[in-house]
Amino acid sequence: MTSKLSGTGVALVTPFHKQGTIDFGSLELLIEHTVSNGVDYLVVLGTTGEAATLSKDEKNALVGFVKDIVNKRVPLVQGIGGYNTQEVVDQLRSSDLDGIDAILSVTPYYNKPTQRGLYLHYKHIASASPVPVILYNVPGRTSVNMKAETTLELAREFENIIAVKEASGNFGQIMEIIRNRPKGFMVISGDDAITMPLIAAGADGVISVVANAYPLTFSKMVKAALKGNLEEARKLHYQLLPFIDSLFADGSPGGIKAALDVMKLVPNNLRLPVVKVNKATQGLISGFIADLKEKGIEC
Predict the structure, then answer these.
(1) Catalytic one among 165, 220, 223, 257?
(2) How many other β-carbons are positioned within 10 Å of the β-carbon of residue 296?
(3) Per-residue pLDDT tens over the stretch 15-26
């Protein structure tokens, strides 16, 4: 499983019609855009997919649709997490995870658990999950950081906890996990902008936002870095870096949806409380897309 989930995963956005319903036509277009351009796997119902704003029925319909369109061409990871441990466990037991290769489970947010609380939360999830588990540490969104020692304890004690998506931005913490992880445990970048240096330090890939828009170029960068071709990886990294920064300048997924709209892949519609980027950021994003196109970088 870990070999299937190395490289570039895409945190798929959820396209919406102007009236707010899921735009399945645009979602199919986006899936084909990413899969045909070399990404290694897809992630549905993540933060970038605005999962927090989707109803249970919408989530089920979206996951079922993605399974049908992907048709096992690439692995699928489904986001299942929350701040109520028992509710997450119940969801795991009631979900149809046939065709899902792993779940991505974010650390509990809002209630700010201790490290002991985080450990017990994931212990219950690992015990209940019929598929492998990827931990997701993103303290900028959850207000709690899962420390390296907690991640490593979970990795050593539960065979079905196979990876961590690390979005703390803390290089020291991430490298401690890489240095001390058990054999086969993957460290996945949760930040597009630092993926290349993290892979150089020993990380196994990324779950990416920018790869919604530029799957081919970003996947080439990741593959080059994983092969140790750092000169090529650096070149691609710096070509995309200003654009990546612009995507997060005014909130995500607002930035990537603005970009996908310019590229005529997904309409720029979001659900509250997420809103469109401001005009200045929109101008930056549009400008970078035009510049990349001029340089021959189109996807």
Answers:
(1) 165
(2) 6
(3) 999 999 999 999
